[in-house]
Amino acid sequence: MDPERFLDEAIPKVQAAVPAPSKAIVAASGGIDSTVAAVVVTKALGERATALFIDTGLLRRGEVAKTEEVLNGAGVPHRVVPAASDFFRVLKGVTDPEKKRKSIGETFIRVFEKEAVALHADYLVQGTIAPDWIESGSAAEGKGGPSARDTIKTHHNVGGLPPDMKLKVVEPLRDLYKDEVRTLARHLKVPAPERQPFPGPGLAVRVVGEVTPERTEIARVACAVVEEEVERAAHDGKMPLPWQYFATLLPVRTVGVIGDVRTHADAVSVRAVESIDAMTATAVAIPHDVLRRISERITRELSGKVSRVLYDITDKPPATIEWE
Ligand code: XMP
Fold first, then answer.
1. Of all atoms in ligand 1, which is nearest to the CA of residue 319?
2. Which of 103, 119, 244, 249 lies 20 to 30 Å (CA to CA) from residue 23?
3. Distance from the CA of 199 to the center of ligand 1, in angstroms?
4. Is pTM, for the whole model, over 0.85?
5. How does pLDDT run across 199-237, given as a tens digit for each residue?
6. Is the CB of 156 under 6 A from ligand 1?
7. How far apart are CA 225 and CA 222, in angstroms?
8. Is residue 38 within 8 Å of residue 125, measured between CB atoms?
């Protein structure tokens, strides 16, 4: 992919899709895809574009500050919209992974619609890339045509769009794969987000079963421990930094013991994978001493809440990267 040629085509396409004086809001997550999309659209539309970062309550530790740093570094004017209570309300009682994604997708859109009214915007720009819609199956392609693929997962920014949505969607990176987005990011001098890819539905897909503020906090602490320990191990030369490394809270309560008191608490899985484009992935080896430290820290920092730490060594396929 030649970045210059891509931009020569993409910028006029965005200008045609959002004719003056119409305005667009940009769904910014701080991840590389939406940040690159925001830069392309800011180049195309200037002040007619406004980037919004939604604080869903499903974010990793430190995510708001990190995202603001990335967007500032990329020169993207933006605003943070606090919306955690909206998301936890729709997730109450939901355990089915597809329903979770759709509820989250719809809530994102409702929050964006509310903001769009205030900003007089008619368009919503998303950083959707090719694997997002390929994995979301034919229904998400929006063309009504047959597809050879079945739905693997409805990625929230594709299949979760409600049918009555008022905003018109613009997706400037729709045909690109992850490695191409990275090439474009380097060309645009977008500060490489230091952090690994993170799914749009956030920690909700790392809490298997019902997503509550309390269970999300357990996943947040466990993910932070895995991130810190794997990054430390990579920094110390014990292992290469993997594509993704995280913890998932399982809907399994197991028996443990603290002192001489029996506990009945949650189980957490630890996973690290290598991948090129997220379409396939290989589970990578975390050195045993690092795993032991992760287990020791998770059970200490979540004492009484997590009593067992498991290590997931499954490739994609047959598993997917996330548990849901
Ligand atoms: P899976 O779990 O499908 O994930 O192997 C492939 C890559 O996509 C991320 N992921 C998502 N990203 N919306 C997103 O924007 C989603 O619903 C979603 N689900 C998974 C995942 O973290 C991995 O990088």
1. 5
2. 103
3. 5
4. yes
5. 989 999 999 999 999 999 999 999 999 999 999 999 999
6. yes
7. 5
8. yes
